[in-house]
Amino acid sequence: MNQVKSIITQYNPKYAEQTVRMWRDSKEQAIYQREIHSFEDHVYFLNCILPEQFQIDLALIGEKVVGMIAYNASEINQLYIHTDYQGIGIGQTLLDKVKAHSSGRLTLRTFEINKNAQRFYEKHGFEIIGRGHENEENLPDIQFEWNPN
């Protein structure tokens, strides 16, 4: 697929259902496991819990949500790209914005089973700093750090 022009914008609740559908679909395909929370609980998490500690940005093509990232100065909490739009630079665009607004160091976790995410983060300068099971899915995960200094 060729480079597609996406627009990065701050999250707006009018995109909640679309964002959660994209997030759930992408996650389920990445970890081969159904989402454990109800759709309504996931929307509540996106609108009410996540924004307490994290800035949320969306990648839009037209009015279609094709990606999302939740982050603060030192951590990326969520990064999902619609599976039809992976590999064309949208994740990199979101990541570059977060790196530019970071404290100079970022950490994140990804599921060990999600090899595509691991390759993506390693390609963009992240290194493995830990392994564990610190997730509701109780799947092995990997902690990555980006520290360019």
TrEMBL record:
InterPro entries in the record: Acyl_CoA_acyltransferase, GNAT_dom, MshD_Acetyltransferase
Domain N-acetyltransferase: 6-149
Pfam families (UniProt xref): Acetyltransf_7
Protein name: Ribosomal protein S18 acetylase RimI-like enzyme
Lineage: Bacteria, Bacillati, Bacillota, Bacilli, Bacillales
